[in-house]
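Sorry, explain these tokens?

___
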Amino acid sequence: MSLLGFMSVKLDRQQTLLEGLNEALLIIQSESLGRAAELGFTPEQIAAAKETLRDFVSRLREKLGSNQNDEELSALAARIRESQYELNEWLEELAKLETLLAQKTPLPSTAIPMLEGVLAILDEQLTAAFNRLYSR
């Protein structure tokens, strides 16, 4: 497989991940606002969205805490480590978020900006990678 083909497949996987996370976040936000039923989201969809986000947060927290070789999250972890916040602060916030996502109650609206921030970083990285790939 050519390098262009390899990178294209890799970026497609990252785009699929980001799309799934954004969809899950939308469902969680609608539940937090008390509008999930109005928007047609079922309790099963809400539970699945929470599980998707919880799994992602858990893998990210593990990656940040252990430097394990998870290529999917390496760039995100590196960007977080370079941020203005201490790594321990990130780990604590992600642990809280993971706990909140495991609960059956709606996610507090105060927890949503953390998820939005992480997904914004992913989106920036994906856009930059697509730009690099296709500007050649």
